[in-house]
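Hey team,

Filing this mostly as a record. A colleague (T.K.) asked me to run one chain through the structure pipeline before their review meeting, and I want the input and output archived in the tracker in case anyone asks later how it was produced. No errors, nothing strange. Just documentation.

Input sequence:
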Amino acid sequence: MKQLAIYSDAAGKCEHCGRILDLDEMPISTSTKWKCRHCGNEVSREKTFGYERGTLFWRKVLWIDKNGNWSKDRPRREFSLGGYRIVNKVSSLFLYRY
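Output structure:
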């Protein structure tokens, strides 16, 4: 079975159920609330995707590690986690999101 790839900067962990989420799957509209596709609860950029708001942009400060935990270190190698492949290659959709 082929694993779905998630770019490391787009990988998140639901703040409610702890399941892996992909930022690229969230609506691009800023007026739409983001919801976890597993539990249906509203998720935030900060707690679910590890971003913090800067003065002009959002900045990634936490990454998912190979054990599914938050880390302050960006992963240097690809790894498998919960049916996904976490990669460092930039997806085209992610480039246009911010």
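Quick notes for T.K.: Residues 71 and 92 are 25 Å apart (CA to CA). The two ends are 32 Å apart (CA to CA).
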